[in-house]
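Marked as duplicate of an earlier ticket. Keeping the data here for the record.
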Amino acid sequence: MKYLMSFFITAVLNITASAQSSLSADAELARASLYHLQKDYGKAIQCYETAFKVRHPDASNAYKAAGVYSLSGNAERSEYYLQLALDNGWTESLWLMVDPYFDYLKHVDLLRWSKIVAQAVKNELEYEKKLGDPALRRKINMMVISDQQLRYKKVQTKDAKELEKINQELVASDQKNWREAKNIVEAHGWPKLSDIGKDGQNNLWLIVQHADHDISFQRTVLEKMKQLLESKEINLENFAFLSDRVLCNLNYLQEFGTQVNWTANGMASGFRDIGREWEVEERREKLGLSKLADYALSYGFTYIKPTKQECVRTRKQIDKNIKGLIDSAKAAYKAGDFQQTYDGYNAASTFADGMSNEESLEAAVLFSVIANKVQVNQKYKDISLDFLNLLNLRNKLDKKSIQQMHEFDTIRQDVRWMSLFEDK
């Protein structure tokens, strides 16, 4: 009996230690990402090595570690992890060949570098044989490679004229990639992993994720993704990120905690507001995402999940603040203080899932009326159209009804008003 109890306790302790090691690895990898972004390569290396002691690196993390070692000037360790990445299935030879992180490695040991590239190309050719649409994968990857090269060039340059030129090239590149991504999704839906591979999906997702100027397109992609959720043909992390991105762009509460409030130098102050936050870890776990406490470390802040009671109490206070702002704005309007009206509604609109659709429409009407009363009125027209555009993106705008409302006569000639009624 004692033997059985001892065996049971040992087994439990081993399982617990294994779980703790796994969590420790996630935390160290998260810290490594932040230090890498901040160009503190020494600390990034320490975190990678600590993580790898408890969890053997997969292809992606081995590749990241190789890049950091190259940036730090350690060719030997960089080559070691690059080889490990290749052995573990790294197949993005096109990106490897142009990756600026390995400029040092290319310079120090060109012969060794050439052998690594040759092996990567061989691996990729073999990998492509397993895919349903390798040509589409290659096309998507080349789109992102070109974009990333421009962004790296932008970070490196300090010449004002050169920077202006790069920015113009980036705008053109973003527009081209966005249009091409729309064509791809229209023709293929959301391409499956078995067709374009994980890297192909990741790169196409990256273009969509950054298309915040076209939320309708992001929503379309999200619907295409949902059709694959029950299969093994989609990167679930990408789905979580885009889902939260769309929710935040529509000023709703996010579900998975992927979106943060940025500060500077790759850091954030915390997560953007999360719906039913006390249940967020369960939602993340279903998609195979890491704990938020570990994920937060990649942005340089600590996170402690609040209790249900704390979440409910916080939300009640937010709702009270929003009501106070709107009541104050309405009182200011009656008093003829239109600036205070603007400030109150503008502040209320910044709270995620704060103003109801009815309150947003009421605000749009009010500011269009104000614009008709004052001589300098552009900002009032703009905020009225902002509220209408949000309702339109949410599919909560009764277009027939608002066309008949004389209160909007002031903004009918605005391009943004007319775009509300365009077929897209």
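See parent ticket for discussion. The CA atoms of residues 71 and 101 lie 6 Å apart.
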